[in-house]
Amino acid sequence: AGIPCHPAGAQPSQLMLDPPWTPMFLMERVTLTCQGSGAPGPTKWYLNERLWKQTEPNNIYVSRGHAAKDRYQCQSPGTYLSPAVTLSFSNDWLVLQVPTRVLLEGDELRLRCRG
After folding, report:
1. CATH number of the domain that 39 lies in?
2. CB contact at 8 A, 19 and 97
3. DSSP structural state of residue 39
């Protein structure tokens, strides 16, 4: 099952993460929310460019018990696939976090150090 093409006239879904930082510590929970057209139906979730699961609510929770770095995407009914968001989980005792949102040249980059 490959990545679906763009339906005519459709807009991309938007994948939002809460908290919007990476990397996270092991066992921390991140909420992934897929924003789309509001059309009824299941939300499709992709993990590393493969269909992972389908849910009726437009959000899921992600946590990892081991170090991992994965790419997430979503597709709401009536929209096409969201841009990929990379989320990492670290077993280090100190992490320098960066925002998961896409940054453009000239954007302010806020960093966060957590221990």
Report:
1. 2.60.40.10
2. no
3. -
Q: What is the DSSP letter of 82?
A: P
Is residue 12 within 8 Å of 50, Cβ to Cβ?
A: no
Does residue 2 lie within any of the structural domains? no
Q: Give the structural domain span for 23.
A: 14-91
In this prediction, residue 51 carries a pLDDT of 97
User: What global pTM score does this model have?
Assistant: 0.86
**Which residues lie closer than 8 Å to 61 by C-beta, 6 or more apart?**
29, 30, 31, 32
In the sheet with 30-35, reading across from the earlier edge strand, the strands are 14-18, 30-35, 59-62
- The tens digit of pLDDT for each residue in 15-73 reads 999 999 999 999 999 999 999 988 899 999 999 999 999 999 999 999 999 999 999 99
What is the DSSP code (8-state) at residue 52?
E
**H or E, element range at 31:** strand 30-35
